[in-house]
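queue> pop job 88
queue> type: inverse folding (structure -> sequence)
queue> payload:
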């Protein structure tokens, strides 16, 4: 009987993209939509499984990643905030997983090396949370121990896991990552342009 599973990657891809005014996950970056890069990088990471949580424009989003070996979980409550997507992903994961790595769907430059660094810290020191840091500022993705599963499932609102991180600040381990990508997501046109510029000079991992 399985009594433990490796970490699960949960890609949050349900948002409304209100500030951009169009679905940022489907914008092109090179020859692929942004979300495809994000998911492919998650799949190239040392994770046991990858779950993609969809919501807004779910048919178009799911069509973009249907060729990839991921589990798709639809979140019907996506308009109520990011916490609903976190919870949908956690509910869809194996009950034996040791932890969750939460990816933002609009961070296509998060390579497997970043996830590997988080997992190495997690397995060495067993903290409740692990987050990457660039230039003294915390970024994403964030790894949350399965010991906090109940607290994850109690989150509300649009702040994601931030309340959990604040509550357990003394149990948060950080890993220095010399990549600005961990601080970059796409909320406005200038963010998209900055992401494209970084992609052109520092391509992310090829498709696995």
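queue> result:
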């Amino acid at each position: 009987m399985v009594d433990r599973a490796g970490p699960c990657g949960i890609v949050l891809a349900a948002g409304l993209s209100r500030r951009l005014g169009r679905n940022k996950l489907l914008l092109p970056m090179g020859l692929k939509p942004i979300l495809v890069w994000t998911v492919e990088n998650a799949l190239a990471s040392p994770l046991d499984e990858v779950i993609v949580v969809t919501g807004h424009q779910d048919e178009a989003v799911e069509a973009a990643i249907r060729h990839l070996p991921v589990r798709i979980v639809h979140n019907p409550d996506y308009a109520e905030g990011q916490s609903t997507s976190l919870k949908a992903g956690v509910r869809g994961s194996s009950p034996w997983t040791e932890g969750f790595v939460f990816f933002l769907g609009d961070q296509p430059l998060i390579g497997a090396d970043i996830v590997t660094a988080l997992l190495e810290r997690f397995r060495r020191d067993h903290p409740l949370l692990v987050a990457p840091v660039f230039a003294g500022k915390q970024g994403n993705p964030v790894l949350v121990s399965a010991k906090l599963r109940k607290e994850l499932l109690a989150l509300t609102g649009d702040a994601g896991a931030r309340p959990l991180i604040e509550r357990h600040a003394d149990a948060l381990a950080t890993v220095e990552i010399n990549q600005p990508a961990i601080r970059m997501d796409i909320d406005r046109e200038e963010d998209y342009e900055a992401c494209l510029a970084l992609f052109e000079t520092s391509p992310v991992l090829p498709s696995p």
